[in-house]
Amino acid sequence: MSTEPSRPEASDSSDVRVIDEQQVIERLRHGDEATFTWLQTEYTAMMLRVAHMYVADWATAEDVVQDTWLAVFQSIDRFEGRSSLKTWIFHILMNKARTRAKREHRVTAFSLMWSEEVEFIDPGIDERLFNAQDGHWTSFPGPWPVGPEDQALSRELRDLILRVIKDLPLNQLEVITLRDVEGFAPADVCELMELTDANQRVLLHRARTTVRRAIEEYFNTS
Question: Is the Cα torsion angle 189, 194, 197, 199 positive or negative in sign?
């Protein structure tokens, strides 16, 4: 993930051509508007989805994202490079979203969200359904919709999965959204959520198990 900001090519007259992340950071520090615009184009949609995990509606999520970009612009000189630029931006975003959510009484105190190590294996879960290397499913729990005639089924499944994810406990919602929806690396998720790798894995495992069970039930009752 840390190399992701190394690939912009501007589509406007400013002609932003960035070689690596450090060059992005230097251009931002010098107030380069084209680089800042590119960065917003790269991450704003993802930031909106992540912010919406915490707040009640998309309008509030947009406010959180705008506040985040303002904070990025104002504090880029203090960025020390201990994490990737992307992780730093999302750390600001999630802190602001959590603060907004607390103000709206949508979540419990985050200091109480995760306080101890847990066993990786959940009772009643068939571990053979999951790949031991990365935790992904070994097979899809039903016929995979591939043809044009299956488009309605595919939309139904997508809506089902999104509903199930949205209803997960907040810490599971965070992990599965960051890992499986937005594609963050495990180490980045651990940093963003201040989790050990073991806790990150068990949260993701539980979230994926809930989603799988919902899909299995969908196919069994169809």
Answer: negative
Residues 206 and 128 grouped into a single domain: yes
If asked whether residues 66 and 139 sit together in one domain, one would say: no
What does the alpha-carbon distance between residue 65 and residue 90 come to, in Å, rounded to a whole number?
Answer: 10
**pTM (two decimals):** 0.72
- 62-102 pLDDT per residue, tens: 999 999 999 999 999 999 988 999 999 999 999 999 999 98
Q: How many domains does the chain have?
A: 2
What is the rounded CA–CA span in Å between residue 210 and residue 101? 25
Amino acid letter, residue 185: A
Transcribe 111-122 into DSSP letters: GGS--S---SSP
Would you put residue 17 in left (φ > 0), alpha (ψ -120 to 50) or beta?
beta
